[in-house]
Structures are given as C-alpha cells and as structure tokens.
C-alpha cells in the first residue's frame, strides 16, 4: 500500500514537472526572441537579459529535467519492486503449499512406519512366547516321559 501510494505521488509529481518544463521551455523561447530583438537596438539590455534572466531560466529548466528523470527512475524502480513483491508472495504460497503437502506425507509415512514397528514387535513377542511355550512343553514332555519310564521299570 505504501509503495502504491508513493508511486501515485511520483506520478502526480511527474505531471507537475512536465507542466513546469513546458512553461520553462516557452519562457526560454520568448526570452530568446526578446533578446534577439534587443541585440539590434540595445545590446547592453540584451546582454543583461541573457546573463541575468535567460541563464537562470535555462538552469531551472535543466533542474526540472533532472528532477523529472529522477522521478521517472523512482517510479520505474517502485513498479519493479511491486512486481517482485507479487512474485515473492506467489513463491511463498507455492513453497507453503509444497511444504504442507510434504509434511502431511511425512506424518502419514511416520505413522505407518510406527504402526508397522508395533505389529513387528507384537509378532516378535508372539513368536518368542510361542517358542517358549514349545520349549516348556518339550521340557515337560521329556521330564514326564523319564518319570513314566522310571516308574514302569
């Protein structure tokens, strides 16, 4: 908003400067014509007009042209900054969208991997329990078989 306001201010300033430049050019042309007329009849007056008036009119005209160039450069620079800001906003939006999608995927994958680990841990515990039961049953069977054979003998 501030950049757009400054851009509008520069636009208004450039309009006024163009008006002032037009007036300075017209004044220069009229003074030059008067000085040319005075050269023939009153060279001293012509010299005084040229040195005391025309010089300052031309100097002011040059100052106005310089100020206009500075204003145009500022206007164009602000325009580029505004366009760059729009592109940066688009880039941030795209990056945010991509980052959110990546985070969502990462969370889903992490949850799935965690679930798989829980299942693997449960399967491992079940296998261990089953092995222990088989070993215990085998031991009991062996001990009982030995006891039965000893009693039978």
TrEMBL record:
InterPro entries: Toxic_anion-R_TelA
Signal sequence region: none
Protein family: Belongs to the TelA family.
Protein name (database record): Toxic anion resistance protein
């Amino acid at each position: 908003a501030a950049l757009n306001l400054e851009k509008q201010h520069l636009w208004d300033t450039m309009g006024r400067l163009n008006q002032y430049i037009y007036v300075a050019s017209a004044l220069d042309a009229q003074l030059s014509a008067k000085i040319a007329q005075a050269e023939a009849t009153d060279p001293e007056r012509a010299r005084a007009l040229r040195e005391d008036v025309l010089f300052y009119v031309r100097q002011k005209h040059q100052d106005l042209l310089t100020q206009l160039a500075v204003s145009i450069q500022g206007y164009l620079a602000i325009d580029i900054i505004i366009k760059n800001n729009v592109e940066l906003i688009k880039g941030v939006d795209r990056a945010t969208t991509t980052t959110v999608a990546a985070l969502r995927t990462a969370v889903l994958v992490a949850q799935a991997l965690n679930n798989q680990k829980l299942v693997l841990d449960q399967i491992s515990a079940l296998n261990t329990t089953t092995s222990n039961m088989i070993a215990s049953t085998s031991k009991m069977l062996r001990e009982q078989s030995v006891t039965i054979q000893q009693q039978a003998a």
